[in-house]
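User: I need a structural model of Adenine DNA glycosylase from Flavobacterium humi for a docking pre-check later this week. Nothing fancy, just the predicted structure tokens so I can convert them on my end. Input:
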Amino acid sequence: MNFSKILTTWYLENKRDLPWRKTANPYPIWLSEIMLQQTRVAQGLPYYLAFTEAFPTVFDLAHASEEQVLKLWQGLGYYSRARNLHATAKHIAGNLNGIFPPDYKSLLQLKGVGEYTAAAIASFSYNEAVPVVDGNVYRVLSRYFNVSTDIASPKAKKEFTLLAQEVLDTENPALFNQAIMEFGALQCVPKNPDCSLCPLNESCQALSLKKVAELPVKIKKMKIKDRFFHYLFILDNENKTTVNQRTSKGIWHNLYEFPVIETETPVSGEKVLESIEKKISGASHITLLESETVTHKLSHQHLHITFWRMQQDTVFEGGLDYEELNKLPFPIVLHNFIANNKF
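Assistant: Understood. Predicted structure tokens for Adenine DNA glycosylase:
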């Protein structure tokens, strides 16, 4: 029994019951693949169900407002995925009559669709014989074949894609691609896999060489940037508040936030208070709401956040009450703050 046969046999006995596996329709498959980029299935599944209920077809998603899309995406992170998802839905609905491109090369032309996602859709929807190569696949292949190439290096993608193509079951690529990905997710896990239960343990090179914990190799480390945000939760004379939309490129593009003072380094409460008094005329009853700074970790940035509540002797144009505020899409750290500070 060869590598691909063992994997597909294991998959048919152990696969998770996931809704996007019950269809060849490219729309829900595309949705799931975009949502599961950088996201665990357990976290992404509720969002997938919410999206398919709100937008059952690509036309429904295309006709939604960006605000609606971002609100449903709230908390899933990497918000550029949501904006690209919406843009692609508009393109498919408006320019392609709602029909997804039918092959790997054409799928690559869609915004937000890279090589992995195009291969996944092409194989799962159209049974095209193209290999999928995600983190799970890197791990399975590197261990089974004892490949020590740094998976963060420029040459890794080509090397592992060629290897995945060699072992691909070209008669049933959809089944094989699902199998190898699921095997990496459930059996050949990153830390402490139970190799005694692995159906490949008799031929796995990493296991025979006692290198399972060393593979795959990943040397490159991302530099983390620290940023310091001091959010101003301001209430006017009508007990309404004000927010801004982040329109500049960078994190949280087009999401909403309270007025903010950003500093390059940690600063004392007294310094923040001085900045608030300069920035907000007529501010009173200024209070630091959390005794400890909230640290919100993104893939490449750590945001150190404080929240300050105050009154301002004015009436905001377009001021928002609590219910109106909750209709807007916020970064999850701000959404949680709002949920805990009803006014």
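Before docking, keep this in mind: Strands lie at 225-235, 244-245, 256-257, 260-263, 283-288, 294-297, 301-312.
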